[in-house]
Every structure is written in structure tokens, then in C-alpha cells.
């Protein structure tokens, strides 16, 4: 998945069309002034080194008379990339839930609660998702 900036091409097109941003030819500098940011920030956005906040993208699009989606080209992830994104999310979610569960158990034990009360608290907090979790064995595909 990628977002490819098209800010410079939109600025060039608008300059060729005689467009003005508050009386100035469209450039990274005039755009930066109109947005209230430094020219280096617009340059960074145009190179793809950073992303502006969503409201800044809409403001930029308004100033240039384009739709917000014309400032960036979205290339969706391949199926393989999407599966990796999901796998990474699942891994982080599992780690987070197990960490939160351990912390809560430790906290409740320090307070002197019984194992039954601790298990009930853990269940009520929704931290039992991986209690019976077992890794699925990898199948050999031959």
C-alpha cells in the first residue's frame, strides 16, 4: 500500500493554467504561506517524506481547486501485503491483550484478591481471548 504525492504536478498544472494562490503563482512557497506552514514542510509532503494532517490536505485541495484525492495517488496493497498487515495486527493485538492480562493479574494479586475473583475480573475485561489459543501447525504444501 502506498500513497504517492502528486502535489508538485498539481502545482505545475495550476501554474500553467494561470491559477493564483492569494495573488501569487502556485509554488511550494506560496502554498506554504497560504497554509501557514514552512516551505520545507510542503517540500517534505511533496517528496512523500511526511503526510499532512487530513484537514491540511483538504485546505490544500481547496486552495488548488482540486479534490483531495488528486493530491495523492493511492496504490492499494497486494493480497500478500494485505495478509501481512492482518497478520501483524493479530500479532500486536495478541501481545497487547496478554500484556494487559499479566499486568491486571499482578495488580489484583498485590491487592490480595483470590484466583477466582481474578479470573472473573479478567473475563469481564475481555482479556481471555487467548486463554485457549494454540498456534495452528504449518502444513507442508508439496
Describe the structure.
With 142 residues, the chain is mainly α. The protein folds into two domains: 2-75, lambda repressor-like DNA-binding domains (434 Repressor (Amino-terminal Domain)), CATH 1.10.260.40; 79-124. It has six helices and two strands, in the order βααααβαα. It has a two-stranded antiparallel sheet with strand order 1-2. The longest helix has 32 residues, at 79-110. The two termini are 31 Å apart.
Query: What's the CATH topology name of the largest domain?
Result: 434 Repressor (Amino-terminal Domain)
CATH H-level superfamily of the largest domain: lambda repressor-like DNA-binding domains
Order of neighbouring strands in the sheet with most strands:
1-2
Count of folded domains: 2
Distance between the termini: 31 Å
Name the shape in a single word.
Answer: elongated
Structural class: mainly alpha
Largest sheet: 2 strands, antiparallel
Looking at the overall shape, the CATH architecture of the largest domain is Orthogonal Bundle
Radius of gyration: 25 Å
User: Which stretches of 5+ consecutive residues score pLDDT under 50?
Assistant: none
**CATH uppermost class of the largest domain:** Mainly Alpha
Strand percentage, roughly? 5-15%
Q: What is the number of E strands?
A: 2
Mean of the pLDDT scores?
91
The helical percent reads: 55-70%
Count of individual helical segments: 6
Provide the succession of SSEs. EHHHHEHH
Amino acid at each position: 500500500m502506498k500513497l504517492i504525492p502528486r502535489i508538485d504536478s498539481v502545482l505545475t498544472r495550476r501554474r500553467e493554467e494561470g491559477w493564483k494562490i492569494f495573488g501569487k503563482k502556485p509554488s511550494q512557497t506560496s502554498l506554504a504561506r497560504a497554509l501557514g506552514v514552512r516551505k520545507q514542510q510542503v517540500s517534505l509532503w511533496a517528496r512523500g517524506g511526511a503526510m499532512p494532517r487530513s484537514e491540511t490536505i483538504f485546505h490544500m485541495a481547496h486552495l488548488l481547486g482540486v479534490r483531495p484525492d488528486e493530491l495523492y495517488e493511492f496504490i492499494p496493497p497486494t493480497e500478500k501485503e494485505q495478509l501481512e498487515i492482518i497478520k501483524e495486527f493479530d500479532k500486536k493485538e495478541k501481545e497487547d491483550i496478554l500484556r494487559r492480562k499479566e499486568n491486571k493479574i499482578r495488580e489484583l494479586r498485590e491487592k490480595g484478591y483470590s484466583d477466582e475473583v481474578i479470573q472473573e475480573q479478567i473475563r469481564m475485561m475481555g482479556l481471555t481471548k487467548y486463554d485457549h489459543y494454540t498456534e495452528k501447525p504449518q502444513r507442508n504444501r508439496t
